[in-house]
Amino acid sequence: MRAPITAPRARTGCDLQRIDDVTDAIRDFGDRYLDRVYTPVEQEAGRLGGAASLAARFAAKEAVLKVIGTADGVDPREVEIATAAGRPVVHLSGLAATLAAAAGIGPIDVSLSHTGDCALAVAVALTDPAQPTEPTPAPTTEPRDAP
Amino acid sequence: MTQSVTDTIRGLLAEHARLGVDVSSLSDTDDLYGAGMTSHASVTVMLACEDEWDLEFPQQMLKKSTFASIANIRDALSELGVDGASVASA
User: Complex ipTM, two decimals?
Assistant: First the structure.
């Protein structure tokens, strides 16, 4: 009998955000929009990179929340997309951090990109095998994909 | 005649929700996400509601379900004390 699979499992999340929507939100709501959605670190990135940078960070927040598995009750600022050595870095706080820990999710990596119209983010993390979030499938003696 | 809370919500959705369909074609219980509203648009709808009724949605109401339909938004506004937002007066 095989031992239970204990290797970490990967979780991914992705999101796409129209840059014009962020531009319009800044126009319509100004600092209220910025202060409700973005941390000071993220707003500084937006000051330098404009709406495209903020759109990428919003997409990254959503991608991270997809990895965590829920956004309910999470303040957008609890998922901060900072920058270190030229790479985006995820900092979780508050309920977002609590939910990620409860789900056994390790450090989350993100990648950002954008064109003239849209920003894209992908988030990846490994889950702690000691806290499985999905039932382990029963082992099979003859995998269907076996040659 | 004073505009009802539901009518005002529909107006705010038309302006901010970026739906793929005309708001007037939606019932109060239709799924706004199914009609094309994105997470980002739900944030701007929330801010528009806050401006309209001079209130602030608390963190525990920052849920996808809060903005999932016109009826849900109305219920949230009722919970926040907006006059005329309860179902009986909508």
Answer: 0.88
